[in-house]
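Narrative summary of target 7.
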Amino acid sequence: MEDNLYGLMDWAGIEAVVYSEEDRPHDILGPHLVEEGLLIQAYIPSARDIKVRLLKTEKIYSMIREEEGFFAVLIPKVKRISAYTFIVTYDNGVTQELTDPYFYGQILSETDLNRFSKGIHYNIYEKLGAHPMEINGASGVYFAVWAPNAVRVSVVGDFNCWDGRRHPMSRLKDSGIFELFIPGLLAGEIYKYEIKVKGGMVVLKADPYANRAELRPNNASVVCDLNGYQWGDSNWLSTRKSVNYKKAPVNIYELHLGSFKKPGTDEREFYNYRELAPMVSDYILEMGYTHVELMPVMEHPFDGSWGYQVTGYYAPTARYGSPEDFMYFIDFLHQKGIGIILDWVPAHFPKDSFGLATFDGTCLYEHLDPRQGSHPHWGTLIYNYGRPQVSLFLIANALFWIEKYHADGIRMDAVASMLYLDYGKKDGEWIANKYGGKENLEAMEMLKHLNSIVKKRKDGAMLIAEESTSWPKVTGDLEEGGLGFDLKWNMGWMNDFTNYMKSDPLFRKGRHGELTFSMVYAYSEKFILVLSHDEVVHGKGSMIQKMPGNLEDKFANLRTAYGFMMCHPGKKLLFMGQEFAQYSEWDEKKEIDWKLLKEERNASLNQYVKELNSFYRKKPALYAWDFEEKGFEWISSQDADHSIVVFVRKADNIQDTLLVVCNFTPVVYENFLIGVPFPGKYKEIFSSDYERFGGKGHCNKRMKPSKHTGADGRMDSLSITVPPLGISIFSSTPLETTKESSKRNSRRK
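Modeled conformation, tokenized:
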């Protein structure tokens, strides 16, 4: 029998298994029907003795030790493969019964492999990674990873003493995917992939598709089952499908979970997602925001990156809890009527040795040439968007957060760095595209591809671009050559407006164009006006500290700035802490300064923002026609000497029209004449100078009829009090409507 066994064995393959260089171990290990019967081979280092127990007959067969750790047995006259286990006795005398991982054949289908290689397997996250499952009655974990240039890939963890010889994975044809099902493993197991690269070096890599990761500074992946959470937000998701966000109020509160609030009475660094859920939702509901935008929650090793250097694209950071905890957070906010937008970083990734960098010993996810594959300023690597499997990694990831975590929007960071090959680079540090241009054609195609797939879902999820240049048609239709995003951050407005507001009011008349220029291009894209975290870090000062003058003037300036922003066309975003005038710059290591709400000025500003948010949501003129030219009209845009602008916001109903007056100087103007869009009655319904907001009370208390006196190129005008460093908003009742109402009342009498 031993002679027969010896002759049946592939000794070259066995040698490759023993020396950890076999990329198709299923060809050697596990059960194989031969003419003489059933050949079973196993390689378990440190095993002293192994027996095979056939589960159907309960017969036990002793295996022969052919090499150190390598055992084989020929069971004669067996014509079919049936289930069995190994009874393993180790060198230390411990005995363990195991199910053979190599009993199971290929799991990924040919269709899966084909779609993956073409970059169109949009739920590939269901296949690659680590997934608890049951196969033929055996529970375990299925592992799959893409590493086409590896010599050998193994799954390692506590369950096999981190020994890469124990569980080598099998390469699936020429797909570059390695897979292995390991029976007996459960969710919670810690693991990595041990990859032997060409040249013989061995590296340990976290799973690119892992759904959970260890808490930093540890960086192993963790087996996780995402299918156990019971969602309760079906009503929210159903409603979301029918909402036209372009005509709806969108007012976003940007926050960093780790510094929104911190535990003050225990030794923990952070609150759990479940603890944060009511804290965040209560405040958002109180303040009247429609959405929360979370700075990246994807796993990252360095706190100071704020999440923008991601190593775990498919795993919410363990800093705040488990994946189910994060699902609870989103579910909780949805049930409170609050949308969730997730920051996402498809532009670059860090060089951490356990991450994507030189993943299989080659530049797999990045370009080989540093002129294409490296960001010199950020010290990070650029994705090779032209490789279908890499593009799919990112496309599927965005879809993953929408599908698995019910995200209402994905905000893409640093899109400009993706679109321009020369972004942040000097001459000689970049390579032109095939046409000699600086446009990254592969990145353009990836972004269009993603936007097209998300739009086909028709589930109401938004894709938002942080694109800092004048790249055309970022939010343009795909059919018309656009990139297909739903919304774009208006970085130009942010820079111009903050520069304007930082200047002394005495000199603002010389910078008047910075205030009005945004309307020249306001309808070139579907914009979000942003005062984001980028504006309150790295020496830029908080929003209140940007404002000129004494403390009273600073607060008046800031109220005016927020009021102007709210009335300007475009959706809105404000970073946390700025709504109550945090004095210090944002620091991710500290909780934002909630104690300032005990100070009268800060509390008054907080109340102002709260009422401004409420006013915004109640007034269709401030959002319904954000992206249509008919929704805005200048009354006075050239009055640089007074630093005053007057404009109108409109909606479907003419009676919803709002007249907005903004004064960016500390001068009160009595009986100030402004043109009006039509004759009628005008009533001041909101002012930043109300005393309860910390203002001086220079308001227009009574309804004012317009007069047939020309002003600002209009036939009719209004004489008003203009508050210093203030904004006044008037409702309007057209004269025609007033006359018709009077006639109806007369007829009733």
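The chain is about 25% helix and 25% strand.
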